[in-house]
Amino acid sequence: MKKIYKIIIIYLGFTISTFGQTLLVKYCENSIISEERLKELPEEIRNERMKKKKYNLFVDVNKGLSYYVNDVYTKNSSYNTEYEKETQYDDHVEIITTKVIVDLKNTEKFYYKDFGKDEMLFEFFNGDQLFTGKDSLKNWNWQLTNETKIIYGYTCKKATAVWGRGEYVAWFTEDIPVQAGPEKFDGLPGLILYVGTPYYEYSAVLVKEMKDKVNIEKPNFDKIKTYTLEEINDIIKQKIKGLQSSSITTQDGDKTITRETIIYKN
Q1: DSSP secondary structure string, 60-73?
Q2: How far apart are CA 55 and CA 40, in angstroms?
Q3: How far is CA 103 from each of CA 49, 193, 194, rounded to the nearest angstrom?
Q4: Residue 8: CA atoms inside 13 Å, Cβ hemisphere, count?
Q5: Alpha helices in 94-146 (DSSP H)
């Protein structure tokens, strides 16, 4: 996926005061799925669902900018495999040929935010379509609670929100008073260290100040068609019908032959 961003590193030669300049937060993203459901999936899809994807969040505290992007080792996956299972019965043979198509392009992505201008620019795949987006920062209407817990050494508070059919839980720390967070999530009175849904989660695994200056440059979308998050959600809903797997069974003498195709796309 072509990325139209640039990060320039300039050595300063002195220690930045705590979170006074640039902050780096590393996150892992992964699916949440029960052991029972995981065992039902083909091995290839099971392996993809168990992968932890790694992302970096750069926060320029002084300028009110943030940039969330996959790290250099977190890449899209696209491949297919085929295997055959033959079962001998008393009066016939059953042959099942399974083709698994894995096409995951949503791993590589970025989200640029300018908190002062209430602006978010982003790019990600869904299926075969690359979406380039321009939107205001999302108003999550977070509901704060009194629950607390420790994440990566920081005391965090719990907040909840609802968007569409999804219910989100976030844990943020006021020890780092910036409103940033992973991907499209922000808007709390402290850095978001965890976001979870019943099916997916974002977890901070490292928080540190940068000793080097990081200049976050705004992506140039002037000549590119852009969408809002709501527009993208509407498009995806229309596409879901075309992402169905298939199965065809035929009879050849005493052989029952089933050919199935399992498609795993995000």
Answers
A1: ETTTTEEEEEE-TT
A2: 29
A3: 13, 29, 27
A4: 5
A5: none
Which residue has 């974002």 as its token pair? 202
187: its two tokens: 């808007």
Can you tell me the distance from the alpha carbon of 221 to that of 131, in angstroms, rounded to the nearest whole number?
Answer: 12
Give the number of C-alpha atoms closer than 13 A to the C-alpha of residue 33, restricted to the C-beta side.
17
- 122's CB contacts (< 8 A; 6+ apart) are 109, 110, 111, 112, 131, 132, 133, 135, 184
Mean pLDDT, all residues of the chain: 78
In angstroms, how far is CA 228 from the centroid of its own chain? 17
Q: Measure the CA–CA gap between 123 and 229, rounded to whole angstroms.
A: 11
pLDDT at residue 95 in the model: 72
pTM of this structure: 0.74
Cβ atoms of 157 and 171 within 8 Å: the answer is yes
The Cα–Cα gap between 226 and 240 comes to 21
Q: Is the dihedral of CA 212, 202, 230, 103 positive or negative?
A: positive
Q: How far is CA 118 from CA 123, 143, 230, in A?
A: 17, 21, 16
**Binning pLDDT at 50, 70 and 90, where does residue 35 land?**
confident
Total Cβ atoms within 10 A of residue 218: 14
Report the C-alpha gap between 78 and 60 in whole angstroms: 34
